[in-house]
Specification:
2 domains, 15 strands, alpha/beta, single chain, TIM Barrel, 5-stranded parallel beta sheet, 4-stranded parallel beta sheet
Length: 438
């Protein structure tokens, strides 16, 4: 496959290299017309404003990939072969500029434009083109790539398809350890205060639970780690754990202190068996030095370099958050999703490298987008465990259909045996048994 383009811009090259990573096939590109015309590749794509050869597949370009600045773009979403699309042009073979559209979505172009923030100061999902046009719940970029390969196969009268070359489906369960324990290893004053607070509220279940944990008759309800271990072993899964290691507590950072021996033991236990990363505190979003300190704390505990992260409360602001992560040695981030709704924030279910739009250059920060978090199902979408099971299964099937990477987020303090959360624990267990047994 070879593509002719009048100019090999940074944005164009980035987009083609991303597509190449998804299809597992080298894509050549050139701005030399003679090289393009004489090349023996059976598939030729002309990404320019005029046809230049017979039997080529012509895609008329939008100006987006040839610009070096950020500016408001008027977008009208329509349908192309029953899929949502934009940058539409009926005068070429494809019907829309798939390359520019992919770049717009995975580079998060809209997040650099003026927008309304949510109550946590984050980019609001209601501002996104995917939410406004009802494609937040589908991995549209992956769908577009599969469609492009199908159209190329048909146009060039090839007998084989490229589906077998697409990356294969895989699943990575991830966990945010925000609140390590409910009662154990908490300050005495917090435990005593909590006891009387539950008593005054008449929450006898909590009073009894707290007393049983204090006396050693019952395991701390948030201590679900052995249960997770059993699930991963049973279903042959390789999870990633993100630990909140804030120096001090705050309204959003409620974990036990990072210096606690119990925290050190827990982190060491997981680092010995699994991949672990930093869960930058809410406070670190206001202080660059705090992120560096939290990363060093994790490295001191594990005696390993810390390269992975996911923002606590998904506090992600482009480009500042990602630049700060890069400056602190983070090479992979798992924050690309919304903390307010489930779905595909970048409309993609495959890893991609972050493109710094303000600098107009690609980076080496690998982004792993997630599409499902149980807290969104419960707190934001107000679903029951049964409804959440259907939602989770939907995302599994949607990602599997395009050979993508499914990433979910669960919390240890959510999937407990407490009466409120036990149905969610059972829901997750059933999901794994249904999809990853055998």
């Amino acid at each position: 496959m070879i593509i002719f383009t009048p100019a090999v811009s940074s944005r164009f090259q980035y987009t083609i290299e991303f597509i190449q990573s998804v299809i597992g096939r080298q894509i050549l590109f050139t701005s030399n017309k003679e090289e393009y015309l004489s090349h023996d590749e059976p598939i030729k794509i002309n990404y320019s404003f005029k046809p230049i050869a017979d039997k080529e597949y012509h895609i008329l370009p939008h100006i987006l990939l040839f610009h070096e600045r950020i500016y408001p773009i008027s977008i009208t979403v329509g349908k192309c072969r029953n899929n949502p699309c934009f940058f539409i042009n009926q005068e070429d073979n494809h019907g829309f500029d798939v390359f520019a559209a992919i770049f717009y979505l995975i580079a998060r172009y809209e997040e650099y434009l003026p927008h309304q923030k949510d109550s946590y100061g984050r980019y609001s999902h209601t501002e996104s083109i995917s939410y406004k046009n009802n494609f937040l719940t589908i991995p549209l970029v992956n769908i577009w790539i599969k469609d492009l390969l199908t159209q190329l196969t048909t146009h060039h009268s090839l007998l084989t398809t490229f589906d077998s070359r697409l990356s294969t489906f895989n699943y990575t369960p991830t966990y945010d350890i925000d609140i390590t324990y409910a009662y154990n290893h908490q300050p005495i004053l917090k435990n005593v205060g909590g006891f009387f607070k539950d008593l005054i509220k008449g929450d006898l279940e909590k009073v009894i639970e707290r007393a049983n944990v204090y006396s050693g008759k019952q395991q701390d309800p948030f201590d679900t780690y052995s249960w997770f271990d059993g699930l991963h072993k049973q279903h042959n899964l390789s999870p990633v754990y993100f630990f909140l290691l804030a120096k001090k507590k705050s309204i959003y950072d409620k974990n036990i202190t990072a210096s606690s021996p119990a925290m050190h033991d827990l982190v060491k236990h997981h680092a010995a068996k699994y991949t672990v990363g930093i869960h930058p505190s809410w406070q670190s979003g206001d202080s660059k030095t705090l992120l560096s300190e939290e990363i060093k704390t994790l490295e001191n505990i594990t005696q390993k370099d810390c390269n992975l992260s996911r923002q606590h409360y998904i506090r992600l602001t482009l480009p500042d958050t990602y630049r700060n992560l890069i400056e602190n040695g983070i090479t992979e981030d798992y924050s690309m999703g919304y903390g307010s709704i489930n779905g595909f924030r970048a409309s993609v279910a495959s890893p991609f490298y972050w493109y710094d739009l303000e600098k107009d250059e690609p980076t080496n920060l690998l982004i792993h987008p997630y599409c499902y978090m149980e807290a969104n199902s419960y707190f934001e979408e107000h679903l029951s465990a049964t409804e959440a099971a259907e939602e989770l299964q939907y995302y599994h099937d949607a990602v599997k259909a395009v050979g993508g990477k499914l990433i979910t987020i669960f919390h240890n303090h959510f999937l407990t045996n407490q009466s409120q959360w036990k149905p969610w624990r059972e829901m997750y267990e059933a999901f794994l048994k249904r999809n990853f047994t055998g």
